[in-house]
Amino acid sequence: MNRSWNILCWNVRGINGQNKWDALRNKIDESSCGVVCLQETKREFCDAAYIRNFAPRRLDTFDYIPSVESSGGILVLWNSTIFKGVVLEKQQFSLTLSLTSQHNHETWFHSSIYGPCTEPGRSLFIDWMKNLQIGDDENWLLVGDFNFYRSLEDRNRLGGNIQDTFIFNEVTGQLGLIELP
């Protein structure tokens, strides 16, 4: 099986101006990726005209989860000559697709995630993760900003809640997830 998919995932913290559009377009062009996953878009609406500000035309198919107020938002774009994409599920915190290679017909599943920072969304997100049914023979990639951390050292500031690390590690262990560097 070919597992050398070229995917760009980026927590953009808003895509709201020429500087960010240019930086994102440069990163997409540099990677030559067939799938782009953006978290924390802070966009309530995405359409093709807006996406053309930063995405090359080869990324001709997309779906998104709108932001709520000024938080969250997920956008996934893909090249339809490389992948046939089918949206399987949309949650406020995740967008799950089935992506099938147009070349060898291999299918894999992709969940792009922007985890909630506050309750009750955090608990709903963890419950959703706990209930994922990932078969041993399925290729599944979960990417994004989970807003949980595997250890206190992973935080970008001092402090943290050790319970969060226990909760997240329990769920990732239960699912058999492997953290990619």
Description:
The chain is α/β, with parallel strands linked by helices and 181 residues long. The chain has 4 helices and 8 strands; from the N terminus they run E-H-E-H-E-E-E-E-E-H-E-H. The strands form 2 sheets. A 4-stranded mixed sheet has the order 1-2-4-3, covered by helices on one side. Strands 5-6-7-8 form a 4-stranded mixed sheet, with no helix packed on it. The longest helix is centred in the first third of the chain and has 14 residues. The two termini are 21 Å apart.
In helices, the fraction of residues equals 10-25%
Strands, total number? 8
Helix count from the secondary structure assignment: 4
SSE-based structural type: alpha/beta
Task: Give the strand order, joined by hyphens, for the main sheet.
Answer: 1-2-4-3
- Global geometry: globular
Share of β-strand residues: 25-35%
Tell me about the biggest sheet? 4 strands, mixed
The CA-CA distance between the termini, in Å, is 21 Å
The H-and-E topology, N to C, reads as EHEHEEEEEHEH
| Rg result | 16 Å
Name its key features.
about 180 residues; alpha/beta; 4-stranded mixed sheet; 4 helices; about 30% strand; globular
SSE topology sketch:
Layout: E1 7-11, H1 18-31, E2 35-39, H2 48-51, E3 61-65, E4 74-78, E5 83-91, E6 94-101, E7 107-114, H3 121-130, E8 140-145, H4 162-175
Parallel strand pairs: 1-2, 7-8
Antiparallel strand pairs: 2-4, 3-4, 5-6, 6-7
Concise synopsis of the structure shown:
The two termini are 21 Å apart. Strands 1-2-4-3 form a 4-stranded mixed sheet, covered by helices on one side. Strands 5-6-7-8 form a 4-stranded mixed sheet, with no helix packed on it. Helix content is 23%, strand content 28%.
